Amino acid sequence: MPLQFTRHYTLPEARELLPKLREWFAELDQVTPLVQQSEKSFEPRLTAGEDLGGREVVEWAKNLRRVHEVLREFQSREIQLKDVERGLVDFPAILDDREVFLCWEKTEDNITHWHDIDTGFSGRKPLWEAHED
């Protein structure tokens, strides 16, 4: 069976990471709007040809850097970040000798669903159905 991913999570391994993912999403929820707000305020000034600098730009750069650092945390663990705002992630996994995703959304208490790699969120199935296909 050719695999698309090099890292595969067991259900316990993925569940163990949930507290950390909740922290990361909380930080993204806090910092991302600050980045967007700064960029929105910069746009008319840039359009007018104004040079930007100072404290506002430094704060924007710090916040943007933090967003990138959090996103790298997902990437370094090969966790598939599907939707930042929803907090939707997929963990590559092997179920019944096939590569799938364990699927979790930040509003959920636990990982209870999976889907085939090519179906996405709409193809989610409860984990207890993994052996029925």
Task: Please characterize this protein's 3D structure.
This protein is an alpha+beta fold and 133 residues long. The protein has one domain. The protein has 2 helices and 5 strands; from the N terminus they run ααβββββ. The chain has a 5-stranded antiparallel β-sheet with strand order 1-2-3-4-5. The two termini are 17 Å apart. The model has no long low-confidence stretch (mean pLDDT 91).
Task: Please describe the structure with a list of short key phrases separated by commas or semicolons.
single chain, 133 residues, alpha+beta
**Order of strands side by side in the largest beta sheet?**
1-2-3-4-5
What does the average pLDDT come to?
A: 91
Reported for the largest beta sheet, the result is: 5 strands, antiparallel
The helix-and-strand class reads alpha+beta
Shape: elongated
Number of DSSP strands? 5
Range of helix content:
40-55%
How many separate helices? 2
Percent of residues in beta strands?
A: 15-25%
SSE string, helices as H and strands as E: HHEEEEE
Total number of distinct structural domains: 1
Roughly how many Å is the radius of gyration? 19 Å
Ends apart, CA distance between termini: 17 Å
Low-pLDDT segments, ≥5 res = none
